Amino acid sequence: MAAQPALFTPLISAIQQNSGTLQDFKQLIPEPAVVVVNVNGHPAHALLNSGLLADFMSAKLAHQLNIKAFELQKPLPVHLVVQGSHAKINLGCQAELAYQGISALRYFDIINLLNYDLILGTPFMFQHQIMIGFNLMTVLAGSVQAQKIQGKHIRTLESWAVSIETEKTKLSAQRCLVNVKDNGEKTNN
Length: 189
Prior knowledge:
The chain is an alpha+beta fold. A hairpin with a 2-residue loop joins strand 1 and strand 2. It is elongated, with a radius of gyration of 28 Å. It has helices at residues 13-18, 59-64, 122-127, 166-188; strands at 34-39, 42-48, 56-58, 69-77, 88-99, 102-111, 118-120, 130-133, 138-141. The chain has a domain at 34-146: Cathepsin D, subunit A, domain 1 (Beta Barrel). InterPro entries: Peptidase_aspartic_dom_sf (IPR021109). It holds the Pfam family RVP_2.
């Protein structure tokens, strides 16, 4: 009887030998910098995030504290590290924020946040010279007065949202309807 050809011949046996290594999906991580601040006299949990280029308030907190929100003239896209995100900021507000001697009326973008009432980003951290230590969690405010955002390492964030001019849009729509009607009459004759 003739020998049967092998259906599968492993080319690299070392991969087979290493592929059975068990991996633990647990990872030790430090706690994030979360502080309790006061917003309009009420305690709120705020995440300090040096990677965020804005200060956010949760829509839930704004609603609970009856903070008057205003609609932004142009919705701002939220750019996350993860691709494919399409969140937009449509509302903003001002609220009194108090923390470590800081007491100031601040602007916040309102957005749906999951685990925090506020996320204080680089505007707040820069203006109040916030220093964070993680190995023995420490947060220090270097200035109770908001400093101007100026200096060599400052950049301008601009909205690239499109403005629609309603009069021009209406005229264009009317021209399109006239063209469609004219073309329809020509083909029907």
